[in-house]
Design a protein that fits this description.
10 strands; globular; alpha/beta; about 35% helix; seven-stranded parallel sheet; 8 helices; binds 2-amino-2-deoxy-6-O-phosphono-alpha-D-glucopyranose
Length: about 260
């Protein structure tokens, strides 16, 4: 596990984008697992800049998004489909046919639909690089506390805390979705490499629990301690409650000196 402490949000966004860009340059047909949430916006913006100014090419990249609200169509302004178009796909050259985002409106048998989503990931060769944010309750994707570490793509009921946190994106009086389709913890842990982004002091407690706390389904991000190639790209505020901060800084220095490829 690598913990990259950055001064602030801009720096962490650039750092995360640098790692994604490097993955795409070394494997132009890479499969990326993508996340939504305000934390990822700066990274997507920087990737769009690298595309526009330096020709970073996404034409062969395949993407799978982590999750989508149940009941929101692709045109709904708060859907993750819409978020992705506005914050990333509209600015880069990912081919439409290579974009996969769970459909929250199919109705009927979600089990079959979710199994097909899993199959599509496998058929694409698995996820090379999975981007994650983290909820205040430690969730990744919409894997709320007590989600099984073996879980796969499925319907998940959202906790009140998550509904409250995300209410700000919805209009006054607008009904908040109570459920979502999300990749499971088991799905996420199969990615070859994982990047988790976190910013701000509101995330400090859960980030410390995820990195240094016990591995527990009560903080689903703690599952990442089981993965062999995870990088936490966080800022000082989000890292403020980490006990081993000084150690992570030394590891960053030594890694830059001796194994710089580990950082790319
Ligand atoms: C939602 C998403 C998560 C994301 C989280 C954090 O719950 N399903 O994937 O990590 O929000 O969002 P933010 O970055 O806005 O704090």
């Amino acid at each position: 596990m690598l913990v990259l402490l950055n001064a602030g949000y801009e720096e962490l966004s650039r750092e995360a984008a640098r790692i994604v860009a490097s993955a795409v340059r070394s494997k132009p047909n890479a499969t990326l697992g993508l996340a939504t949430g305000s934390t990822t916006v700066g990274m997507y913006k920087e990737l769009a800049r690298l595309h526009q100014e330096q020709g970073l090419d996404f034409s062969r990249v395949v993407t799978f998004n982590l999750d989508e609200y149940l009941g929101l169509g692709a045109e709904h302004p708060q859907s993750f489909h819409c978020f992705m178009r506005e914050n990333f796909f509209g600015d880069v050259n990912v081919a439409e046919r290579n974009i996969h985002i769970p459909d929250g409106t199919i109705g009927g048998d979600y089990e079959d639909y979710c199994a097909a989503y899993e199959r599509a990931i496998r058929d694409a060769g698995g996820i090379d690089l999975q981007i994650l944010g983290i909820g205040r309750n430690g969730h990744v994707g919409f894997n709320e506390p007590t989600s099984s570490f073996g879980s796969r793509t499925r319907l998940k009921v959202l906790t009140n805390e998550t509904i409250d946190d995300n209410r700000k994106f919805f209009g006054a009086g607008e009904e908040m979705p109570q459920c979502a389709i999300t990749m499971g913890i088991g799905t996420i842990l199969e990615a070859k490499k994982i990047l988790l982004l976190a910013t701000g002091e509101a995330k400090a407690e859960t980030v410390a629990e995820a990195i240094e706390g016990p591995i527990t389904a009560s903080v689903t991000a703690s599952c990442l301690q089981l993965h062999p190639d995870v990088t936490f790209v966080i800022d000082e505020a989000a890292g403020a409650q980490l006990k081993q901060r000084d150690y992570y800084r030394r590891v960053m220095e030594m890694t830059a000196r001796f194994t710089p490829n580990r950082l790319s």
